[in-house]
Amino acid sequence: MKECFELVTAATDKTIGHSLEIKLDFGQRQKSRNKARTDCGETLGWFLERGRVLEDGDLMRCNDGTLVKVIAAQETVSQASCDNDHLLMRAAYHLGNRHVPLQIGNGWLRYQQDHVLDSMLQGLGLTVVCCERPFHPENGAYNNHHGH
Fold it and tell me: What is the pLDDT of residues 20-48, one digit of tens each?
């Protein structure tokens, strides 16, 4: 099993080459310590700093020097949309009030599919469709630096 202990973010240097890729859904990308299989079937374990979500395009450096590129996997999500900004803000408020991880786009909101939330937003007047997309929710206002 290859082991990764270092993260090289996509923003640092997009020109760095890589030899392996691993597709991870949002749940897997949240974990600082996890194990999964690369696209070619090799087992990979990573042991990274806690509190950081792996982003699409991030590179993890293995103990043998191999670079592994993180690919945000397609996953089942709901996408709610409307042309009314006020209605979209109300929907975002209600989802945030339920601590739902939320990706915000121009005229749409995306969250991990949940039929109860789908019904709630349809009741508010939004159009909701279930689809397969990579999921990139907002990190939050405190960006993992919130202490009590």
Answer: 999 999 999 999 999 999 989 999 999 99
Closest CA to 12 of 74, 71, 69: 69
Q: CA 28 to CA 44: how far, in whole Å?
A: 12
Neighbours of 103 (CB within 10 A): 18
User: Which pair of tokens denotes residue 6?
Assistant: 């270092």
* 42 class by beta-carbon count within 10 Å (0-12 exposed, 13-18 middle, 19+ buried): middle
Find out whether 110 and 133 touch, Cβ atoms under 8 Å: yes
At 21, the amino acid letter reads E
Q: How far is CA 79 from the centre of its chain?
A: 15
pLDDT digits (tens, 9 = 90+) for 63-98: 998 999 999 999 999 999 999 999 999 999 999 999
> Which pTM value belongs to this model?
0.83
Q: How is residue 41 annotated by DSSP?
A: S
- Residue 136 backbone zone (phi > 0: left; psi -120 to 50: alpha; other: beta): beta
Dist CA 63 CA 2 (whole Å): 7
Give the β-pairing of 59-62 and 67-72: antiparallel
